[in-house]
Amino acid sequence: MPPKKKVEESKEILLGRPGNNLKIGIVGLPNVGKSSFFNTLSKSDLGKAANFPYATIDPEEARIPVPDERFDWLCELYKPKSQVPAFLTCIDIAGLTAGASTGAGLGNAFLSHVRAVDGIFQVVRAFDDAEVIHVEGDVDPLRDMQIISTELRLKDIEWVEKALEGHKKEAKRLGNNSLADKAKKEEAATVEKLYNWLTVEDKDIRKGTWTNKEVEVINSLTLLTAKPITYLVNLSTDNFVKRKSKWLKKIHDWVQTNNPGDPIIPFSVSLEETLVAMSEEEKAAEGEKLGLPKGNPSALGKITKAGYSSLHLIRYFTCGPDEVRAWTLRDGLKAPQAAGVIHSDFEQKFVCGEIMSFEDLKEHGTEAAVKAAGAQRQQGKTYLMKDGDIAYWKCGQ
Ligand SMILES: Nc1ncnc2c1ncn2[C@@H]1O[C@H](COP(=O)(O)OP(=O)(O)OP(=O)(O)O)[C@@H](O)[C@H]1O
Ligand SMILES: [Mg+2]
């Protein structure tokens, strides 16, 4: 018998809420195209799109299918009666203005909506259109990005300051002889470290390297700058088609200086609005007409995929003649928790999983061939789920 495999541990705790039902919020200055983007993304008119600032007040929510070639391939193979892809939950949020952290505009209400999401799609206006009012008077994406960054940062500083005060009061109350409060002291030291990071280092929390213990403190504070940001640069159709805008390089440089590594995706809400009601063929024809490379010219698929992976979400599949379905879970979870995404009973009564990788199925062509090659394995409670696994769960009574 081969030696027992060492238990695979998930190495680091992730920043953010635990759980699999994570949400991404659309954030940006007023009137930059957030609701119009939300509507094209959700193929609905749920979002209040209008040419005036603060059209959106209450958040609207939609579940957006996440494109995945593997899922399409599985549906071709199994030809199931029902097909359920992975979804990304998106929320259209009200516009944010300078001073929001101290209550300007829709201020605190807005920021509480940002607090409730797990990741951010930040819409940055880079299109010129005299008809569309800009609350700051003119188009300047760098200034706008700075405003949002400052507001989120200020709110975090305020929040961390409050936590720090709380810790100081508690330390006073307990005095010096509180051996039992080593953990509390450690927590206070972490909060102090976070405060310095935000103020002295002048950086967002997600850009730091934190220990698991520190991440636990960060997560308990639900800090805004800990949430992943994907920058969506809203261009005119023409600039998007020509891949040319005087702002793109500047935006890129700003992100590299301020938040290195955060993804930036150029797109055009006006082009997406043209495409939204079209069939796949019509979209391809429209792209060709505009001189874009072959295929669907929309950037929405790319944006959805980027949002999904920014939240550290992965998916596994269940496949059969009745249904091919993708199940979303946070990276780093074990088999029982993955089974629990389907039904909590599956987690509690978990016995094992028969698991093969998508790549093996694609290579061998059929489930029977994968089994014959010994590439479908029985996995126990310690198995760490991988993106693209195909699973059959076995549960007790
Ligand atoms: N790429 C673009 N080119 C031209 N006009 C655009 C573009 N993107 C959005 N717009 C226009 O900008 C206006 C504002 O859009 P929208 O209501 O979606 O903004 P919003 O960010 O949701 O605003 P609010 O913060 O007020 O809710 C609309 O008239 C929309 O058609
Ligand atoms: Mg809106």
UniProtKB/TrEMBL annotation:
<keyword id="KW-0963">Cytoplasm</keyword>
<comment type="function">
    <text>Hydrolyzes ATP, and can also hydrolyze GTP with lower efficiency. Has lower affinity for GTP.</text>
</comment>
<dbReference type="InterPro" id="IPR012675">
    <property type="entry name" value="Beta-grasp_dom_sf"/>
</dbReference>
<protein>
    <recommendedName>
        <fullName>Obg-like ATPase 1</fullName>
    </recommendedName>
</protein>
<dbReference type="GO" id="GO:0005524">
    <property type="term" value="F:ATP binding"/>
</dbReference>
<dbReference type="InterPro" id="IPR012676">
    <property type="entry name" value="TGS-like"/>
</dbReference>
<dbReference type="Pfam" id="PF06071">
    <property type="entry name" value="YchF-GTPase_C"/>
</dbReference>
<feature type="binding site">
    <location>
        <position position="235"/>
    </location>
    <ligand>
        <name>ATP</name>
    </ligand>
</feature>
<dbReference type="GO" id="GO:0043023">
    <property type="term" value="F:ribosomal large subunit binding"/>
</dbReference>
<dbReference type="Pfam" id="PF01926">
    <property type="entry name" value="MMR_HSR1"/>
</dbReference>
<dbReference type="GO" id="GO:0005525">
    <property type="term" value="F:GTP binding"/>
</dbReference>
<comment type="similarity">
    <text>Belongs to the TRAFAC class OBG-HflX-like GTPase superfamily. OBG GTPase family. YchF/OLA1 subfamily.</text>
</comment>
<keyword id="KW-0378">Hydrolase</keyword>
<dbReference type="InterPro" id="IPR023192">
    <property type="entry name" value="TGS-like_dom_sf"/>
</dbReference>
<dbReference type="InterPro" id="IPR013029">
    <property type="entry name" value="YchF_C"/>
</dbReference>
<feature type="binding site">
    <location>
        <begin position="31"/>
        <end position="36"/>
    </location>
    <ligand>
        <name>ATP</name>
    </ligand>
</feature>
<dbReference type="InterPro" id="IPR031167">
    <property type="entry name" value="G_OBG"/>
</dbReference>
<comment type="subunit">
    <text>Monomer.</text>
</comment>
<dbReference type="InterPro" id="IPR027417">
    <property type="entry name" value="P-loop_NTPase"/>
</dbReference>
<keyword id="KW-0067">ATP-binding</keyword>
<dbReference type="GO" id="GO:0016887">
    <property type="term" value="F:ATP hydrolysis activity"/>
</dbReference>
<keyword id="KW-0547">Nucleotide-binding</keyword>
<dbReference type="InterPro" id="IPR004396">
    <property type="entry name" value="ATPase_YchF/OLA1"/>
</dbReference>
<dbReference type="GO" id="GO:0005737">
    <property type="term" value="C:cytoplasm"/>
</dbReference>
<dbReference type="InterPro" id="IPR041706">
    <property type="entry name" value="YchF_N"/>
</dbReference>
<dbReference type="InterPro" id="IPR006073">
    <property type="entry name" value="GTP-bd"/>
</dbReference>
<feature type="domain" description="OBG-type G">
    <location>
        <begin position="22"/>
        <end position="287"/>
    </location>
</feature>
